[in-house]
Specification:
- It is a single chain.
- By secondary structure, the protein is mainly β.
- The chain folds into 3 domains: about 55 residues, no CATH class; about 80 residues, Immunoglobulin-like, CATH 2.60.40; about 40 residues, no CATH class.
- The chain contains no helices and 20 strands.
- The chain has a 4-stranded mixed beta sheet with strand order 9-17-16-13, with no helix packed on it. Strands 3-6-7 form a 3-stranded antiparallel beta sheet, with no helix packed on it. It has a 3-stranded antiparallel beta sheet with strand order 8-11-12, with no helix packed on it.
- Strand 6 and strand 7 form a beta hairpin.
- It is rod-shaped, with a radius of gyration of 33 Å.
- It comes from Candidatus Desantisbacteria bacterium CG_4_8_14_3_um_filter_40_12.
- This is Bacterial Ig-like domain-containing protein.
Length: about 200
């Protein structure tokens, strides 16, 4: 932005003092020439011009530039099926300015559950899945690992086996949670018999 300074004497005479005045800023960027200011840091700053003991001020508001990077948090979360995660997105422009874009970003997943609100994910399917955040042409990804919930059912195989005395059978147990996730519970299960061996 180009700034210009005008002086006025006691009689109302005005003249351009841009090239001889001292123009400074409280921050937000720098003057790359006598009166050309380039803003890089977001915020509101004061521009001051000084000339022969006179001072004039104005403000400049610097907004974010186009995002060049996007990040998502939290990262690498591990949850139990049925749990939820609130994701947040932060954009960064080429000057290093960061700002929250959670409410404006789009969140999606490759699977494992669904977003029940704009950025709240509920996991239901076990495994490791990818979470995407998209904003301003930028994308960010992270993973969520979903473990099974408490079992609500247990199955055993083989069923109704018939063997000859002296033979052995290996039994296996499979647990199922409320979301239909199944896992091998053989090593953790307790096997007993009413008799016969």
């Amino acid at each position: 932005m180009d700034y210009y300074a005008t002086a006025t004497d006691i009689y109302g005479n005005n003249w351009d003092i841009t090239t001889v005045a001292t123009i400074t800023t409280t921050g937000g960027g720098s003057f790359i020439s006598q009166h050309k200011f380039v803003g890089t840091a977001t915020g509101t700053y004061i521009i001051q011009v000084a000339y022969e003991d006179q001072i004039a001020t104005t403000t400049v508001v610097i907004n974010y530039a186009t995002p060049t990077a996007l990040s998502i948090s939290p990262s690498g979360v591990v949850i139990i099926a049925g749990d939820s995660v609130d994701y947040h997105a932060t954009a960064t422009d080429q000057y290093g300015n960061n700002w929250a874009v959670t409410d404006a970003a789009m969140f999606t997943t490759t699977g494992g559950g669904s977003f029940i609100s704009q950025h709240r994910f509920v996991g239901t399917v076990t495994g490791t899945h990818t979470i995407w955040a998209i904003y301003g042409g930028q994308t960010a990804t992270t993973t969520v690992t979903i473990n099974h919930a408490t079992p609500i059912a247990l199955s055993i195989i083989p069923l109704d086996a018939v063997i000859i005395a002296g033979e052995k059978i290996d039994y296996h147990a499979t647990a199922t949670d409320i979301y239909g996730n199944k896992w091998d519970a053989t090593d953790a299960a307790s096997f007993t018999t009413t008799g016969g061996g």
